[in-house]
């Protein structure tokens, strides 16, 4: 009891609280020194300059609790930053992270929340008691002495001056140093501004794109019935597909499917769904991503060319371009929104039922887009129990010690996708018409694959495992007979390097015989004109950057080379 009273008395001392609050404010900067691949001078500046600013701000009131609460926004950023560092291992809070707060549905968030408990406990222990002590200080109107504040303010100016000198040194010694990218929390505040700007542009999308037209026209014979299906998968990484040399039987159906061409050297240009999928569904790529606010999607191109269109999704609304592009279709359905039950978790099988109904309409020209839930975490919930082939697959806690179970469950999701695509192909075969299917995944996934212990996707700095995706083209017998040159081109291009983000849209246009000024056959993998391009990645500021300029690690490039992806990595 005596010991407790001593601690209580020590904490009630306002000078002690002043130093405690100051230390807590600078904790994220200290942690970032150990996680970020910055030059030494940049790390020094990342601590000294913010420390000097916080120090000076804390002297603006004699009630240190009041100033601590005034700086609550930075406390929130700090807590958010620490949680993300726990999840991804490095990088500051990205623009995409703030946008994910409004585009990620609640069920996905809850699936992830359980796996962040250690980080959440840490930030609660770090920040909540301090905020309580600050509130008590405010309520009791406790004050620091004028002499103490004056003395600390002088020291704060000295610290701030040293911080400014370190900033000047960072700019002089490091040519690539940028305060809006490298100095926390300036970089986070800058990203918040960008997030608000992008959100406003997204909300105005219908106005900025209303006059857009692909000026599309059909080139295939009008009297022939045609069916084309474009499938956007979720979180499927190529290295776990038997089709690409994986040593487990994850593709028992597709490995024996005739008319299928699997491209092994395909990378996505984004590891986030809200960027990757819109690029897949439009002419937009990393090179011109900001044009997305003024263009429409592939469904509109097919509609202009005379196709009856449909869009079926096993994901919820997120008020983003996926929704906008999907609702361009003549028929659309986000099946998770068909009930008010937020726990409704239908399998991708439900999409096949909708495809069957759409085919029954018998329209002469049909174009169908499917957006599956594929291999999104929680993996065990993505497939029915009878398709639990690799076992054990029950442990889903995001811990490296559970990797075997996590991989088993993940591989089961790939087997389920294999079965899903095979049944879709059979549906198309039954039509006995010119038909083709195009499939890729929006991005891959980390599953504690190496010493970094990374998990999930959408990290500000991507890994190889998040970028290497499957890419499949299937053509019916009728289609191959009608357009043998396209099948031959697909076979000829199979081993070439491909960007799914740039080639998915273009390939589908050529398969469907849709001509438009936005079509570029040098990006279509079924064209003899297909040309390999250097790899780029869409960074957080929507800039196309070569892979060797986005912070990827040596181990990622080793994995790229191991999997035959060894083209120049410089800008296009």
Could you name the key traits of this structure?
single chain, 572 residues, alpha/beta, seven-stranded mixed β-sheet, 22 helices, 10% strand, elongated
Describe the secondary-structure layout.
Layout: H1 2-12, H2 14-35, H3 40-58, H4 64-70, H5 72-88, H6 95-103, H7 106-113, H8 117-139, H9 146-173, H10 179-182, H11 186-203, H12 205-209, E1 217-218, E2 226-233, E3 260-262, E4 266-267, H13 273-280, H14 298-304, E5 308-313, H15 321-326, E6 331-334, H16 349-360, E7 365-371, H17 403-431, E8 434-441, E9 446-447, E10 455-456, H18 464-467, E11 471-475, H19 477-482, H20 484-493, E12 498-499, H21 500-511, E13 514-515, E14 536-538, E15 544-546, H22 554-562
Parallel strand pairs: 2-7, 2-8, 4-12, 5-6, 5-7
Antiparallel strand pairs: 1-13, 3-11, 8-11, 9-10, 14-15
Question: How would you portray this structure in words?
Answer:
This protein is of the alpha/beta class. Helix content is 48%, strand content 10%. It has 22 helices and 15 strands. The protein has a 7-stranded mixed beta sheet, with helices on both faces. Strand 14 and strand 15 form a beta hairpin. Helix 4 (64-70) crosses helix 8 (117-139). It is elongated, with a radius of gyration of 27 Å. The chain starts with a helix and ends in a 10-residue tail after the last helix. The model is unreliable at 567-572 (pLDDT under 50).
């Amino acid at each position: 009891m005596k010991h407790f009273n001593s601690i209580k008395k020590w904490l009630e001392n306002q000078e002690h609280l002043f130093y405690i609050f100051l230390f807590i404010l600078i904790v994220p900067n200290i942690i970032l020194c150990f996680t970020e691949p910055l030059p030494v001078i940049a790390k020094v500046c990342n601590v000294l300059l913010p420390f000097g600013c916080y120090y000076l701000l804390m002297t603006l009131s004699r009630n240190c609790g009041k100033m601590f609460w005034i700086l609550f926004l930075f406390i929130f950023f700090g807590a958010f930053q620490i949680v993300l560092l726990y999840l991804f291992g490095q990088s500051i809070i990205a623009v995409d992270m703030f946008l994910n707060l409004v585009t990620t549905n609640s069920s996905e968030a809850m699936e992830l929340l359980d796996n962040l408990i250690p980080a959440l406990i840490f930030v609660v222990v770090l920040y909540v008691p301090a905020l309580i002590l600050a509130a008590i200080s405010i309520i009791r109107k406790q004050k620091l002495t004028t002499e103490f504040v004056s003395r600390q303010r002088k020291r704060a100016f000295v610290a701030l001056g040293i911080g400014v000198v370190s900033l000047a040194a960072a700019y002089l010694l490091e040519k690539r140093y940028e305060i809006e990218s490298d100095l926390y929390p300036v970089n986070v505040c800058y990203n918040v501004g960008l997030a608000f700007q992008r959100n406003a542009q997204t909300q105005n999308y219908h106005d900025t794109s209303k006059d857009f037209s692909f000026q599309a026209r059909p080139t295939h014979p009008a009297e022939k019935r045609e069916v084309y299906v474009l499938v956007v998968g979720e979180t499927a990484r190529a290295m776990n597909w038997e089709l690409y040399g994986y040593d487990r039987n994850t593709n028992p159906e597709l490995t024996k499917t005739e008319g299928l061409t699997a491209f092994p050297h395909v990378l996505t240009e984004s590891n986030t769904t809200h960027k990757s999928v819109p690029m897949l569904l439009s002419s937009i790529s990393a090179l011109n991503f900001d044009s997305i606010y003024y263009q429409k999607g592939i469904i509109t191109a097919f509609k202009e060319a005379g196709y009856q269109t449909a869009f079926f999704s096993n994901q919820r609304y997120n008020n983003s371009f996926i929704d906008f592009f999907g609702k361009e279709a003549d028929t659309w359905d986000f099946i998770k929104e068909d009930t008010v039950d937020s726990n409704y978790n239908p399998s991708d099988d439900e999409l096949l039922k909708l495809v069957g109904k759409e085919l029954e309409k018998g329209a002469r020209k049909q174009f169908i887009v499917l957006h599956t839930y594929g291999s999104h975490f929680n993996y065990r919930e993505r497939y029915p129990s009878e398709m639990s082939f690799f076992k054990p697959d029950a442990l889903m806690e995001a811990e490296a010690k559970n990797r075997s179970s996590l991989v088993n469950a993940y591989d089961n999701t790939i087997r389920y996708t294999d079965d899903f695509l095979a049944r879709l192909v059979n549906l198309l075969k039954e039509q006995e018409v010119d038909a083709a299917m195009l499939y890729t995944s929006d991005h891959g996934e980390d599953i504690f694959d190496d010493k970094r212990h990374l998990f999930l996707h959408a990290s500000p700095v991507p890994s190889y495992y998040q970028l290497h995706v499957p890419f499949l083209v299937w053509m019916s017998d009728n289609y191959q007979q009608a357009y043998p040159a396209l099948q031959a081109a697909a076979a000829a291009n199979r081993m070439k390097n491909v960007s799914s983000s740039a080639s998915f849209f273009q390939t589908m246009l050529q398969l469907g015989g849709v001509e438009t000024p936005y079509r570029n056959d040098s990006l279509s993998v079924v064209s003899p004109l297909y040309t390999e391009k250097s790899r780029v990645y869409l960074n957080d500021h929507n800039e196309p950057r070569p892979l060797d300029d986005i912070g990827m690690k040596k181990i990622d490039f080793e994995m790229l080379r191991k999997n035959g992806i060894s083209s120049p990595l410089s800008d296009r």
